[in-house]
Amino acid sequence: MADARLTADLRGDLYEQFARVGKALGSGKRLELLDLIAQGERTVEALARAAGLGLTTASAHLQTLKRAGVVTTRREGTRVYYRLAGDDVAVLYVVLRGVAQRHLAETERARAAYLGAETEAVGRDELLARAEEGGVVVLDVRSPEEYAAGHIPGALSVPLPELEQRLAALPPDREVVAYCRGTYCVLAYDAVRLLRSHGRRARRLADGMLEWRAAGLPVAVGAGD
């Protein structure tokens, strides 16, 4: 009997360790921060601004993620940078979203309300083939910092707020494929709507940089390709 109780206690301890990760991910704001960190390492201040959080609140959420082992930090002078603890964390986040999308009807309603009307999309395989042939302009509409941290090789950095002013610089005879952070990032949707309103042929990548990294596809870093 004593051995059985000990085995149960040890099993319980093991499952509690698994639960630490689940508890850390049990917050919409922490998932939003994780989504941002998946684009590349960032400071606490940058993450707070991007997530619309106060510095103290953002720091508390990030410490929860760090204690659960899903993010790590490095210090550079007085600045602390957060990054994913590993590529498997990005995969876990993608799987979590997929489960919610498939099994919670509320997820689809929230997605549609946030992203708006559907825009035509292209898959990763088609994009790779078209880009290799030179038949498409690949547009990264995220922030310059996110682009520098990692982007699709050959992609041009044109943040969404600058897109309308920079339309003339895009080849008028080539289709544009826009991408942003991931499947649920609205920036690529808005970019396609803007491009089409100006008579340009445009589609979006069906997912984004998060899924691109999780699939192990090539990633370029730096401000220029």
Task: Characterize the structure shown.
It is a single chain. The chain contains eleven helices and eight strands. The mean pLDDT is 93. A five-stranded parallel beta sheet has the order 4-8-7-5-6, with helices on both faces. A three-stranded antiparallel beta sheet has the order 1-3-2. The protein folds into two domains: 2-85, Winged helix-like DNA-binding domain superfamily/Winged helix DNA-binding domain (Arc Repressor Mutant, subunit A, Orthogonal Bundle); 114-214, Rhodanese-like domain (Oxidized Rhodanese, domain 1, 3-Layer(aba) Sandwich), CATH 3.40.250. The protein is an alpha/beta fold and 225 residues long. Helices cover 53% and strands 14% of the residues. Helix 2 (28-37) packs across helix 3. It starts with a helix and ends in an 11-residue tail after the last helix. InterPro entries: ArsR-like_HTH, HTH_ArsR_DNA-bd_dom, Metal_resp_trans_reg, Rhodanese-like_dom, Rhodanese-like_dom_sf, Thiosulphate_STrfase_CS, WH-like_DNA-bd_sf, WH_DNA-bd_sf. Pfam families: HTH_20, Rhodanese. Keywords: DNA-binding, Transcription, Transcription regulation. Residues 10-104 form the HTH arsR-type domain.
Question: How are the elements arranged and paired?
Answer:
Layout lengths: L1 H23 L3 H10 L4 E2 H8 L3 H13 L3 E6 L2 E6 L2 H17 L1 H11 L5 E2 L1 H10 L2 E5 L3 H6 L6 E2 L2 H4 L11 E5 L6 H12 L4 E4 L3 H6 L11
Parallel strand pairs: 4-8, 5-6, 5-7, 7-8
Antiparallel strand pairs: 1-3, 2-3
